[in-house]
Amino acid sequence: MYKYLKKRYAMSEQGAKNLQKSILSHTILNLTKMFPPIIGFMFLFQYLGGLEGIPVPAELTLVQYVVIIAVMLLVMFFVARWDYVRLYDNVYNESANSRIDIANRLKKLPLSYFGKRDVADLSATMMNDMQLYEQIFSHSVPHIYATSFSTVIISIMLLAYNWQLGLAALWVIPVALLMFSLSKKQQKRAVIRYVKTNREVFDDLQEKIDRIQEIKAYNLEDKAVETFYEKMDVVTKEKLKSEFSSSIFLSLAGMLMKLGIVSVAIVGANMLIAGQINVLVYIAYLILTASIYLPVEGILTFMAMIVLLDGVVERIKEIKTMPVQEGKQEMQPKGYDIDFKDVVFGYEDYSVINGVSFTAKQGEVTALIGPSGSGKTTLTKLAARFWDIQQGKILLGGEDISQIDPETLLKNYAIVFQDVVLFNASIKDNIRIGKKGATDEEVACAAKIARCDEFIERMPNGMDTVIGENGKRLSGGERQRISIARAILKDAPIILLDEATASLDVENESLIQEALSELIKNKTVIVIAHRMRTIRGADKIVLLNQGKVEAVGTDEELQAKSEEYRKMLEKSVA
């Protein structure tokens, strides 16, 4: 059974086994709830049965009844405690493990996956969906299976004692379940619409927060609030529709089950008149019939929640079944040359890299140039295996990077991209990201080489100054220099620089170029820059156009043989 649970609810193997145990413990707990009515009927049969001339199977004293009740209460207490630990501890542990598993999978997914999903959507899956997952699993899933099993057992007992009364009591249950099942598609459509509109609200809110500067700059505050309220109104309506679609069928199913009491009353009365049963059996079945419908109605309520859970599970399954980037945990490259061999890469609707081949040699600076959209940044990301290529090979020191685990591979890279990302922490901690466990002296040295000391001295707390979310308290150039300091601190054998000096003024760019010249000795460097004077001193220049290599050579060689390169030089001078 645990294999079915594992597949059905996207659980781990241990989580599915624990859920199976929880179902067993909750089934036993449900059966122990039959103890009080059983003891009550034994008492009635003994003390009232004699008045009606009904034979009593066993006679117990009042003291014995007290002892039995005390033992029964103890058993129920320990079973309830055992069930609580199995149910809630296991569910919450599985939820925590699922969050960790999703987080571990997310870090192994290629960047192409994140390009297809909104950050708000992923955040909602990690937090809101997992919270709903916890709630439904702790209050619905085990109860559905456990109540189903215990109801089947009790039903068998009712049928075994008197099949006519048993059928009169139980015929409404399958009919009610069938009615609810037939409405499941309609409920699912309503839930899907609600979840979709709810996600749109999250996406809209995330976008408005990210674009607050533009919203204020163009006086769009009222419009932004208005559109948000409109989306919230749609969500509210869809939520009401989803609630209505389930509640109406729940109400109909609940009303139908009440007919079972009527049928037991009619069948039982006829059997009582015919002398086929005694009055105590008649009363017992009336009471049991009323009590057995309550957990069944609970099953229907929980089944309505399962419809909502299905949507959550599908999104969790999507993440858990996405192919992750894996590979060898160790590598022994023969040097740090990076070879691009007939590399082809593209997105779903268009191609970006079309058969690119060149070698970025260790100890040299290889510059990638070309018009916007020619594939420069994409190549640097492919070199670091942020994405996996579709054809060809990328070799690092002779080893195919597609066969190497990304975490192992990236230990060899120091990367400075054009879009700098900083954390709401101190300058020191932001630089220390480059090298875990780096000393304060090492961080200060890297900051000095990257020319960060100039603005650090102006900070109220120096290196310990907290710079705000994504470094909002710093200028673009200062943020870029911190990013460069990280790369300097990491001191990796391969350096990728994508417009690393784009946000710097001429003076600071010259200083950084001096620092980088010390950093890149005997290392493999791939640099992207739009300022031609930045790359003219490179050992190799690769001119790209529409995802293809148009020319390769030094500055002098390209001036001699590439008209496109000469045009780029003329434009840069102009």
Brief digest:
This protein is of the alpha/beta class. The protein contains 23 helices and ten strands.
The percent range for strand residues is 5-15%
CATH first level of the largest domain: which class? Answer: Mainly Alpha
Give the tally of structural domains. 2
**Computed Rg:** 35 Å
Report the average pLDDT across residues. Answer: 81
User: Low-confidence parts lasting 5 or more residues at pLDDT below 50?
Assistant: none
Number of helices: 23
Say which CATH homologous superfamily of the largest domain is assigned.
Answer: ABC transporter type 1, transmembrane domain
The CATH architecture term of the largest domain is Up-down Bundle
Overall geometric form:
elongated
Report how far the terminal alpha carbons are from each other: 74 Å
Biggest pleated sheet: 6 strands, mixed
Helical amount: 55-70%
CATH domain topology of the largest domain: ABC transporter transmembrane region fold
Strand order of the largest sheet: 6-7-8-3-9-10
Topology:
Blueprint: H1 2-8, H2 13-32, H3 35-48, H4 62-108, H5 111-116, H6 119-139, H7 141-161, H8 163-170, H9 172-182, H10 184-210, H11 212-217, H12 221-273, H13 279-321, E1 338-346, E2 351-360, E3 365-369, H14 376-383, E4 391-396, E5 399-400, H15 406-410, E6 413-416, H16 427-432, H17 440-449, H18 453-456, H19 476-490, E7 494-498, H20 506-519, E8 524-528, H21 532-535, E9 540-545, E10 548-553, H22 555-561, H23 563-573
Parallel strand pairs: 3-8, 3-9, 6-7, 7-8
Antiparallel strand pairs: 1-2, 1-4, 4-5, 9-10
Helix pairs in contact: 1-2, 2-4, 2-7, 3-4, 4-6, 6-10, 6-13, 7-8, 7-13, 8-12, 9-12, 10-12, 10-13, 12-13, 17-19
